[in-house]
Amino acid sequence: MKSDDKRSFKNYLVKKDLQLRIVLNSSLYMILIVIVTAMVVLFPLITEMVFSENMEVQYQTAQIFLTLVTWLLPAVIVVILLFIAHHIIVTHRICGPLINFSNTLKKVGEGDLTRKVYLRQGDYLKHECDEINGMIDGLSAILNQISEDQKTLISDLEGLTENIESLDTPDKIRTSLNAIKGEARRVSDSLALFTLEEEAQKAAPPQDRE
Amino acid sequence: MKSDDKRSFKNYLVKKDLQLRIVLNSSLYMILIVIVTAMVVLFPLITEMVFSENMEVQYQTAQIFLTLVTWLLPAVIVVILLFIAHHIIVTHRICGPLINFSNTLKKVGEGDLTRKVYLRQGDYLKHECDEINGMIDGLSAILNQISEDQKTLISDLEGLTENIESLDTPDKIRTSLNAIKGEARRVSDSLALFTLEEEAQKAAPPQDRE
After folding, report:
1. In the prediction, which pLDDT does B201 show?
2. How many domains does chain B contain in total?
């Protein structure tokens, strides 16, 4: 992701398929506008130029026609280029964050919760960025709790096996085991903060839910 | 999210801030195009109409001017409306999924991994949708493993406390405790599949990390 910060032109097309689709879609509208406008504008001029019975009018109209075409073409081309550049920049502000989000979500799926998402200046999707970082914080909080409880459990189990000689009555054994059980239950309770799909439901197609 | 499926007009503006921002941005370009085109087109006509010394040319040019304005305005208005509708639909295909993603990510952050994301027909962001569902599957797989191991640990601890009388030699206690320790270690090993941020790093500002 670091190379994105350089913002060379290539880096503006970070998600070619979606960006080009939107740019092409919008450019088609642009071209439709240009064609409609050009036809509406030029049709009466051409009619006048070709069919007028007054030579002077024909001449003047032809001059207007030439002026129009000479002025219009460069103006339209400049505006179309601006329009395309504008759309690439706007889609980049959406697609750049999306690439970053995807990479992070992939890492999270692998259990790596150390990678937050971030936005560059001008990026959209601030809300989604916060949402993902909030999710990572939420998962981390639960897992940190489980981890702490599990460490206590393990270290108490270690302590117990080192002092097996002191467990010389069933009562002492019971007390120690109950303490361990209590700690194991705390781990289970924290684990229960996660709601997992039942294996049976997993087989069902996703569109049947929600 | 269910109401989205009805697709009434209101449902096309699911994420007003972002959508209106994009639509307004693009409409500004549209209006720029229209103004530039109109100025370029009408300027020579107006010059001709006002300053021509030939009355006939003045009359004809005025007629062309009127025709242009009468034809141009409705055409431009229709195209602008089409353009805005088009942009609302395109942004809807991005923002609709984003809303769905946000809701799911929020649930995941709360530990609820039962809610997959889905796309409606025509929606963009298929890749991101798959990524989020993949992440949920990945997290679920690790957590299911931990959960299973933890259940075994708890049930073995229960079994042990019920049969404390059988633990009548240090060797038997050692064997039982080692079995429990082995199970607790399996839970720890699965937990270690998660990489969590150290508390110390958490204090650092996020922009220092990648």
Report:
1. 47
2. 2
